[in-house]
Amino acid sequence: xxxVHAADPFAQAEASAATxxxxxxxxxxxxxxxxxxxxxxxxxxxxxxxLEVPLADLGGFELPTTEGHAxxxxxxxxxxxxxxxxxxxxxxxxxxxxxxxxxxxxxxIAAGCRTVVLxxxxxxxxxxxxxxxPVLISDHLNLTGRSPLSGPIPAGYPSRFTDLTEAYSRRLRxxxxxxxxxxxxxVYAMLPGPHYETPAEIRMLRTAGADLVGMSTALETIAARxxxxxxxxxxxxxxxxxxxxxxxxxxxxxxxxxxxxxxxIGELLAALLPQM
Length: 276
Fold this sequence. Notes:
Elements: H1 9-24, E1 31-34, H2 41-46, E2 49-54, E3 72-78, E4 81-86, H3 98-101, H4 103-110, E5 115-124, E6 134-142, H5 170-179, E7 184-190, H6 199-208, E8 212-214, H7 218-226, E9 230-240, H8 251-272
Parallel strand pairs: 1-4, 1-5, 5-9, 6-7, 7-8
Antiparallel strand pairs: 2-3, 3-4, 5-8, 6-9
Helix pairs in contact: 1-4
């Protein structure tokens, strides 16, 4: 599958952002939320939509093919705060290059967003985590062997050598815990998928310091930090990782677990977003 953003992914993001602002009738936006697998139940809890735009109308977007991801973005207002809510994302395992995977995040930042909230459904590598538990991501292991900063960086953009010492904002994590003191945090490992990991791979990840494992988020975080946006990321533990349960891993059960808890976390985000 070809990478539609190979020529200049930054110019494509600027073009998509201009179309989005025109359709929404908004001069810019403040924050963006990207929903992970099964997180659609969180959308209504975050707020009523002023407008919902199909991604196909914005140009430059490939459409999600994974169940649990919708091909649309909502414009939501919380007081004076303008929020973009992406109802799904595409993944590398769908055949896309990193530039395509991070196009939504780059579009949101080009449209003015200085805060990006990334969510995902994750396997629990840490055996202390329970299914349905939200976990703040404090750091990540990018085990895809890929980066959205590979290739030419146009003039006027920051250096590709992005500092990821604080990839995930401590300020935003502290803010989230003020709203929900029960929130814990952990390290997220991104693998390319689409197959689930083997028990041996999970043992390796645990030894390397991972608490969570999934197939998204890390590349979007890199792209957001490159452009100077603050990132808050939340994993919803939808299953014990391979080898930690006698039950086989199944995407349908992942979606069911996410749907059961996503609305509650959507309420948390509704409270947090106006303060970001």
